[in-house]
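Working notes for the structural subgroup meeting. M.R. asked for a predicted model of this chain before we commit to crystallization trials. I am recording the input and output together here so anyone reviewing the notebook later can reproduce the run.

Input as submitted:
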Amino acid sequence: MRAVTTKTPDSLTTALTAHIADAIAAAGGWIGFDQFMALALYTAGLGYYANDSTKFGLLPESGSDFVTAPELTPLFGQTLAVQVAEAFEKTGTSEVWEFGAGSGALALQLLDALGDRVQRYTIVDLSGSLRARQQTLLAAHAHKVRWVDALPERFQGVVVGNEVLDAMPVKLLARHGGQHGGVWHERGVALHEGAFTWADQATDLRPPVEVEGPQDYLTEVHPQGEGFVRMLADRLQRGAAFLLDYGFGESEYYHPQRHMGTVMCHQGHLADSDPLVEVGRKDITAHVNFTAIALAAQDAGLQVLGYTTQAHFLINCGLAQRMVELPPLERATAAKLIMEHEMGELFKVIALGAGEAWEPVGFAQGDRSHRL
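Returned structure, recorded in token form:
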């Protein structure tokens, strides 16, 4: 197996590397990638989402690593607010629950756009450093906003999660050999001469569909993401959830040509596929299997209200009309939200509902639920 160096003068990376190495040693020399990803992203004070790095921004000169839709243009949150307002009306609720609020930009856009229609805005975020930034940005709405570390046993309202599912730890599965006679392993992380290295162990885990082809195959399964929507189903008494992220339905996710998996890292607005280096200093993500999310939600009692591309969703909610009023440069930036080669096609939106089914405006045209 290829070893990669973890030596760096950066004290944060050094401390986090030592912490993960201790976890590997305590587990007998090997941990699953999902545990590695969780430690790399969420270890208190050290993990990528728990330390003080900038993370969100338009340009690498700001020290940021990537940009999300709310940082691109306020039209994203203003347009999403149309859907949230309708969900309030349909479900008889008035509270937003946002998971992983990042810089707080989306919360600010929704609060400004919804006005008195939102009575309370609850942010569920594990990152203390991000929470401090959010509190500063949302100071004008301090009387409505609160922060919690976990969901209550029972709640109601409209759940929003933009690029949340992709940051949930995934298990890696590697097939050595082809469809017939190939052997599946769980790919995890071990130590070799003080460096993190990939290591595979035999497993009974399998992808949800058989992957065709003679090639070796690397992919992911998403028990934590599926567990998240089951938790929503268990606790959401009345309301809806809108989850926006990049990913595919199952048939596309486990396509034979997608044999290298979808795990990606982001640092300085550059992408790479090696999560074993510079731990704590770069984001680690995996694309979302929206079929698995939909099935987990349905099995736990939620309604799948719609599934479509981000482009269709935002256009259905009136983005095009809003863009017409913008100056040319801002209009070009906003267009990235819906352009096929930018965010428009790769990013999807799934809507889940607790209670009677209804048709959200964001899925009026282009609903792909039948393709999940």
